[in-house]
Specification:
By secondary structure, the chain is α/β, with parallel strands linked by helices. It is 28% helix and 22% strand. It has helices at residues 3-9, 32-48, 62-70, 89-103, 114-126, 240-250, 258-262, 293-299, 328-345; strands at 19-23, 25-26, 29-30, 52-58, 75-80, 107-111, 131-135, 137-140, 148-154, 159-163, 171-175, 192-195, 226-230, 253-256, 283-287, 304-309, 322-325.
Length: 363
């Protein structure tokens, strides 16, 4: 088939414009990945010369509609109803599908969370359209193609695959948390907020939420500000207790490389990297981690990286802001003890304010 013939058969998608971010929330608190995607969506929208839009779904979530504007959305759609208090696939997908039909965005992005994956998959089967899962890079071709370039690791993490959706709209993708940078929250930003109606009857919803049981004891690497991660250099599972002590002292959590997880030293939920979680903490300790690409793509956006390794040529030092070459079994306990000492030496703050006068007691 000639190129001219193929172009003639391409559908006319000129009615579809704009980048839509589906904001994920639980109990009225937005997942950080939603604001991260708004930041990235703003860049994509600028290249396409279109607005970036946000959709907030839930009950009692009007404040998140305003927050979406503070984090960069130009237009915010807000659907609030008691039946939307807890996530269920059918009612949430109906809201998104109705908005796609009415607003016609050319790109729709979701967080690659358990909820985001479920919701995006359901919507893709209903439209139908393409869906690229767990993307770590997003870009667009400029007009006239306006194609979303959604990239993700492929072939056992050995290369990146860029996936296009040429025949259908909207183009959809889920994106990993911690990959993209949220814009600074700016309360001077004013978005156009439009409330949309919930059009389902309770009898149309097959599932009913009887109770929501939160899982306790599970770490959350994606939202952690301090991560103490260990790798093959630890030599076994026992040294992770040493890392936990440092993490507890600093108020952080424990991470791990794929090698440590594959060896059975620690659970997969701790894994950082392409086949684990992508993180963006303020402080990241890489202890006994060589610095393979599979791991560094998951932590390279950390604000400060401290690497501890006995091999001065380890690739991890190329990503570290501070590096210590030496025996981690001596260095880590020394850091932990110093942090404990400093915490103990901070004087307690005593309030000498009189409840009656609001001034110091003068004692």
């Amino acid at each position: 088939m000639s190129t001219e013939r193929a172009e003639e058969q391409m559908p006319d998608w000129s009615a579809y414009r704009g980048v839509l971010i589906v904001v994920e929330q639980r109990d009225g608190e937005a997942k950080p990945v939603s604001w991260q995607l708004l930041g990235e969506g703003k860049k994509l929208a600028a290249k396409l010369d279109v607005p970036v839009k946000a959709l907030v779904i839930g009950h009692g979530v009007g404040h998140l509609a305003r927050e979406a504007g503070y984090y960069g959305a130009d237009d915010v759609y807000w659907c609030d109803h008691p039946e939307l208090a807890n996530y269920r696939t059918r009612p949430y997908s109906r809201v998104v599908l109705q908005l796609i039909e009415d607003a016609k965005p050319e790109i729709v992005l979701f967080g690659a969370t358990a909820t985001g994956r479920d919701l995006a998959g359901a919507i893709a089967t209903h439209l139908p359209t393409g869906l690229t899962a767990d993307t770590t890079e997003l870009d667009v071709e400029p007009p006239p193609s306006r194609l979303l370039l959604a990239s993700r690791p492929a072939f056992s993490e050995k290369m990146m695959a860029t996936i296009l959706c040429k025949q259908y709209r909207p183009q959809m993708a889920t994106a990993r948390a911690g990959v993209f940078q949220a814009l600074p929250r700016d309360v001077s930003r004013e978005a156009a907020i439009e409330e949309i109606a919930f059009r389902m009857e309770p009898g149309d919803i097959a599932a009913e939420v009887l109770d929501f049981v939160r899982e306790t004891g599970r770490i959350n690497l994606e939202e952690a500000e301090i991560i103490v991660a260990g790798g093959r250099g630890l030599g076994g599972p026992e040294p992770f207790a040493m890392l936990r002590e440092l993490a507890d002292t600093l108020g952080g959590v424990v991470g791990a490389s794929r090698a440590a997880v594959d060896a059975g030293w620690i659970k997969h939920e701790h894994q950082v990297g392409q086949t684990g979680q992508t993180v963006r903490p303020k402080l990241y300790f890489a202890i006994g981690i060589s610095g393979a690409v599979q791991h560094t793509v998951g932590m390279s956006n950390s604000e400060v990286v401290i690497a501890i390794n006995k091999d001065a040529e380890a690739p991890i030092f190329q990503f570290a802001h501070y590096g210590i070459v030496g025996d981690l079994f001596k260095i880590v306990p020394a850091i932990t003890e110093e942090m404990k000492r400093r915490k103990q030496s901070v004087p307690a703050i005593t309030d000498h304010t009189s409840p009656n006068t609001g001034r110091g007691s003068g004692s």
